[in-house]
Amino acid sequence: MRVSHNQPAPIDTSAEVETPEHVRFQHQVAGPARRALAYLIDLFIRAMIVGLFGIIVAIAGFAAGIEMRGVSTGIMAVIYFGVEWCYYVLFETLWSGRSPGKKVLHLRVITDTGRPLHYLDSMLRNVLRAGDLLPNLYALGLVIMGRDPKFRRLGDMVAGTIVVVEERFDVSERLHVHPIPSPFEMAALPQRVPISGEEMDALELFLRRAPKLHPARASELADIVAPIFRQTRRRSISG
């Protein structure tokens, strides 16, 4: 059986972005469902803005008389055009790649090099929104997003941008060891502990979880881990 090497890469929910300084970051990309919810929120806000201006223009037109009704229609067309095409560019530029809908759902637009969104990037990706709308209700945009590993629509591909989920992490408090090591125990420790980074992470994870465990379970885990570090310590002394 022949295996084709030209098969597309499987769609994943994460994307690796490499900066020009060759620093790599892992981002969780935003899928169509989450982006659709953000779009609906922004659509509601845009409708409220246009509706508010519509009420103001209608009142002004009614006060000015029947000869101003045609002018009111033209003013509303300009307002609708401005809100539709400037809304995303304005917010994404001022809020570092976030519109109100994206902010609510913790989404952000960044460039595919990990840089913050620039004004020209936002303008380009939103000008091509008209193409994603074809033939109706973002049909073309959804098809393109579904076939792209990073869930990019046409505007994202041309502008070189992706929409990512902003993950929130709680900063852990300072690690406390109980009971506190005695001066004699501290003096017995080498200047550089001969353990790997993975072992250090495992030890820190155990010390952080120990207060939340039952004392018997914490002691059982300690009896398993302690001999491993004891052997490492002896090899360091003998070497």
Plain-language structure description:
The protein is an alpha+beta fold and 239 residues long. The chain has helices at residues 32-64, 69-94, 100-104, 119-127, 129-133, 139-147, 154-159, 183-188, 197-209, 215-238, and strands at 14-18, 24-29, 107-111, 161-165. It has 2 domains: 14-165, no CATH class; 183-238, no CATH class. It is 57% helix and 9% strand. A 4-stranded antiparallel beta sheet has the order 1-2-4-3. α2 (69-94) packs across α4.
Short structural description:
With 239 residues, this protein is an alpha+beta fold.
Detail the poorly predicted runs: 1-12
**Strand elements, count:** 4
- Give the CA-CA distance, first to last residue: 53 Å
Q: Please report the number of helical segments.
A: 10
Quote the beta fraction: 5-15%
Tell me the count of domains.
2
The average pLDDT value, as a whole number, equals 80
The backbone outline, from C-alpha atoms, is: elongated
In this structure, how is the largest beta sheet organized? 4 strands, antiparallel
Strand order of the largest sheet: 1-2-4-3
Cα radius of gyration in angstroms? 29 Å
Structural class assignment: alpha+beta
Order of helices and strands: EEHHHEHHHHEHHH
Please bin the fraction of helical residues: 55-70%
